[in-house]
Amino acid sequence: MIRTVPALKENSVKDNNDMPGHLARRFQQIAVAVFLAEVGDAGFDLTPVQYAALATIKANPGLDQVTLAGLIAYDRTTITGVIDRLVQKGLIERRASPRDRRARELEITDEGRRALRKITPAVEAAQRIMLRGLSAKEGEELMRLLRKAIAAGNELSRAPLRE
Amino acid sequence: MIRTVPALKENSVKDNNDMPGHLARRFQQIAVAVFLAEVGDAGFDLTPVQYAALATIKANPGLDQVTLAGLIAYDRTTITGVIDRLVQKGLIERRASPRDRRARELEITDEGRRALRKITPAVEAAQRIMLRGLSAKEGEELMRLLRKAIAAGNELSRAPLRE
DNA sequence: CGATATTGCTCAGTATGCTGACTATCAGTA
DNA sequence: TACTGATAGTCAGCATACTGAGCAATATCG
User: What does the DSSP assignment read for A95-153?
Assistant: First the structure.
């Protein structure tokens, strides 16, 4: 820190804190950090998207990658790498679909099931920690407003949610 | 889409939509897409972090990279690359500080100033669009709750806000 | 003053996330 | 059946973001 720099202006055109986009990024940044810390402390090396993919594959055995991507709102090009790493870790299996030779069927392994079970408490703790500044009522309201804003903007990103 | 996949279970352990972390990522995903679309339509090729850095450099001439990183809550290792690209585009200048030879002083160029001026309406439009599902009152409430949650979690990420 | 700790910055490595392009395959239709 | 369009997946390229390490320079303290 350079001590002799002039005092910061307080009247920027628009304060960062007034920008929904900035707040969105900050909240997400904290959410990811908390997730990785909690899951790491529990002894696992899983990222948020890897967890989401694993849980969704468990709940929908045999689904293909595009469907998976739609269910968790990730781009299919991103999912390719995520799946690679989950396979690498032995948590899922990827095999050609007998019905559609373009598609790959995804299946959770026993090890994946075990990891998911052990990791869930850490994931839930992370969700609480990232809302720790809010009352229960405020946390609910934040989630309601986020869901509403997201629903209205669903089609605006390349990877909309597909149910 | 494989048509013969079994119907999706509705009773996952925890629906994605109930996870604050998932909602945070989705909202941020939409926010970035909207930002890039609006700014791109205005004829500019600037990312959200590049815009934030540019605006902050303009408001605080001569600041160093670590201070900049703290003001917009980015990791200093990320800022290095962002600054590289802003310099590359001719929007800012980076020069050695005469007071601290470790530090680099950042200054906006005339071209950077012009770009910032022309781009601001698009940035403001983007902020409105990402909240388009909410009433004005709800948008305010969402921002208040985000600010509150972020303040409580500020120190939980590697790149906390430093004012 | 000199040893030590701290700070500013960069880099290598990894993982998201995106755009755009491409291949292989499937589906619908003339 | 042959043609055309759509779809599943991958890839190259780029830009965040992070961890951890390292270098150079500054600050601190005995």
Answer: EE-SS-TT-EEEEE-HHHHHHHHHHHHHHHHHHHHTTTTS-HHHHHHHHHHHHHHHHHH
Q: What is the pLDDT along chain A (163 residues), one digit of tens a residue?
A: 333 334 434 444 567 778 999 999 999 999 999 999 999 999 999 999 999 999 999 999 999 999 999 999 999 999 999 999 999 999 999 999 999 999 999 999 999 999 999 999 999 999 999 999 999 999 999 999 999 999 999 999 999 999 8
**CATH, domain range B44-152:** 1.10.10.10
Please tell me the total number of residues recorded for chain A in this structure: 163
Domain A29-156 has CATH 1.10.10.10: yes
- Strand C contacts (Cβ < 7 A) comprise A 1-2, 32, 47-50, 74-75, 77-78, 81-82, 85, 100-102, 157-159; B 25, 29, 32-33, 64-67, 76-77, 80, 83, 94, 97, 100, 102-104
Among B16, B127, B159, the residue with its CB nearest the CB of A20 is B127
